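Support case: NAP complex. Customer-provided input:
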Amino acid sequence: MSLFDLSNKVAVVTGATKGIGRGTVERLAEHGARVVVSSRHQVACDKVAAELDEGYGKNGVRIAHGVACDIESLEQIEQLAERAAELFDGIDVLVANAAILPFVGPSAHTPTDLFERILTKNLHNNFRLCQAVRPHMANRGGSIVLIGSLAGLVPFPTLMAYSIAKAGLAHLARCLADEFASDGITVNCVSPGSIRSASSARSGVDEDSRRAAAVPLKRVGEPDDVAGAVIYLASTAGSYVTGVTLPVDGGRSRLSPANRGVPTGHRRLWDVDLNDASESADEALE
Ligand SMILES: NC(=O)c1ccc[n+]([C@@H]2O[C@H](COP(=O)([O-])OP(=O)(O)OC[C@H]3O[C@@H](n4cnc5c(N)ncnc54)[C@H](OP(=O)(O)O)[C@@H]3O)[C@@H](O)[C@H]2O)c1
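Agent response - structure generated as follows:
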């Protein structure tokens, strides 16, 4: 059996209809997992689930279901955990991937309500999501992968609240690793650098050549780069790893601040609600 085999595992992925999450559910299904595809929109979740069924289902047995959940809602987070466990009789893997980024700009200009929203929804709500899945993972091992960010490892001046929330996720992984070990559950954080996705286009960092120039490996990352790290941590291959933060950034977090490169595109989008701009972001990617 492959060390990376996920047959009979049940994986729940938030923010799974686009970008990193979409790439991750594809690879989880390819490695044998049954998958709960989640994002805010049920229709989009169902569409991705149907694509996974079509690609990886066997003999008409469903291997994927869509369950809408806005990670801004604690009620929906509870419901996601309950519904996912019900659909596939338990949960083995959680990929807490969805995030919000409603403000980009200088820290001093960050409105108080947005600062609080970014911290609460990206950090506290993911903590609640981990708590909600825990009982469904107990006694079957389990792996939680929090999707952090390069911004949580090194400061980005125009993304302060987001950076702090993402740094918090790395520490949340360390804290929960300790606590959840008694249930045999591993908790880790994967911190992507610039990855080609809808949100990276939206925030103006989809200028590939400039972004690639700031990366020691000289390329922008792909969703598969992150998916590979998730598969490792979720499978037997990574089962003795817990409480770590794994940068998936082409080496960028290892650079000195002067060489790290700040996305200039962020400045153009100060005060824009990036969640509301999702359609134009998708268009920009095409
Ligand atoms: N791309 C990068 O360069 C990069 C770098 C570092 C870290 N990250 C992190 O990687 C994760 C994924 O980013 P991405 O670039 O792949 O994003 P993306 O391409 O914009 O996709 C975002 C996904 O999340 C869903 N979503 C948005 N708001 C949500 C909410 N409130 N509740 C639940 N789902 C929500 C979206 O679907 P709906 O709109 O239908 O809800 C979509 O499926 C995020 O945590 C981000 O911080 C990304």
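The CA atoms of residues 69 and 80 lie 6 Å apart.

Case will auto-close in a few days if no follow-up is received.
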